[in-house]
Amino acid sequence: MTVHSFQEHFDEKMDKDQAIEAKDWMPDDYRKTLIRQIAQHAHSEIVGMLPEGNWITRAPNLRRKAILLAKVQDEAGHGLYLYSAAESLGISRDDMMEQLHSGKQKYSSIFNYPTISWADMGAVGWLVDGAAIMNQVPLCRTSYGPYARAMVRICKEESFHQRQGYEIMLTLANGTEMQKKMAQDSLNRWWWPSLMMFGPPDADSPHTEQSMRWRIKRFTNDELRQRFVDVTVEQARILGLTIPDKDLKWNEATGHYDFGTPDWNEFYNILKGNGPCNKERLDVRRKAWEEGQWVREAALAYSDKRRQRKEKKAA
Ligand code: BYC
């Protein structure tokens, strides 16, 4: 086949809403965009373990500790499925790690904020995982097969994560005055960063248009942000907590909530590496990579030995 007919075959699959698989021909930019997004997504899962890992030793009881531990382990699993999906596009795990550590590949802005109270475990689960689900459920139908399939299991687990966070918030919001205050303080700090997770406004998003055409993205950043606001307002009302946005109000005409503008300067500043925890997060990841070197070497040496033994037996 000529490149032209490869392109036609790809376009035809796109038109028919069929999945592109690892063995299929795909345009270079489609491959690059997927590697960028999936690697960023995988890194977010792994870096996302850090703010919550911070509270495992300080969870208020055994039940909470076991749940938090399981949640953080799930995130490691999500990272692994996603790294595997990205590898199927021809980038190695080592390359992705190198690009995370050098700052060439990003991870979600949200994980550059500190978790300073137990209530943050509630708010992260409720809002951060809530925003993640809103963004990720449509990715179960993204056009690249290995990414879409990885997302199915991830979304099931994320929905449990969201509920465990909401349950922490519910407990605190119905607890003592002090606990309710902690929950409110946490909502105040995580609300705007959660809205930023969906990415810049559509008008300032360089990738949305093309990614929508390729069906990598099924909805735009602003569409998903609006959906998140619409469902979360009701959840806050049940908690008896106040969303820190004076412009938030129901709009009868649109059938949606109007809401204020996130501080996009803060967002871009974080993307440049200047958020409250950027340096700390990357330092921890680099250290983990260096200290895990011997484990990777030992595992490779072991698998090499097994292969040699098998070959000898077969000979
Ligand atoms: N943070 O044109 P745009 C989780 C960048 S993990 C940092 O809209 P796109 C969890 C963007 O990369 C959640 N950077 O881009 C884990 C681009 O920069 P480059 C992670 C961001 O790709 C543990 C530039 O801004 N979820 O849930 O079309 C515990 C322009 O943006 C962010 C995913 O990764 C951001 N928030 O759309 C708990 C989902 N937003 O690369 C929870 C998959 C934008 O040109 N990813 N940028 O230098 C996506 O759906 C899309 O990549 C995004 C951005 C909607 C995030």
What attributes does this structure have?
single chain; 315 residues; mainly alpha; two-stranded antiparallel sheet; 13 helices; globular; binds benzoyl coenzyme A
Structure description:
- Helix 6 runs antiparallel to helix 7.
- It is built from 13 helices and two strands, in the order ααααααααααββααα.
- It is 66% helix and 2% strand.
- The chain is mostly helical and 315 residues long.
- Bound molecules: benzoyl coenzyme A.
- Residues 36-37, 40-41, 44-45, 48, 75, 106, 108-109, 128-129, 132, 135, 196-200, 205-208, 211, 217, 221, 271 line the site of benzoyl coenzyme A.
Short description:
With 315 residues, this protein is mainly α.
| Elements, N to C (H/E) | HHHHHHHHHHEEHHH
Question: Strand order within the widest sheet?
Answer: 1-2
Average pLDDT: 96
Shape: globular
Over all CA atoms, what is the radius of gyration? 21 Å
What percent of residues adopt helix (DSSP H or I)? 55-70%
Poorly predicted sequence stretches spanning 5 or more consecutive residues: none
Largest sheet: 2 strands, antiparallel
Give the termini separation.
40 Å
Q: What structural class do the secondary elements suggest? A: mainly alpha
**Beta-strand share of residues:** under 5%
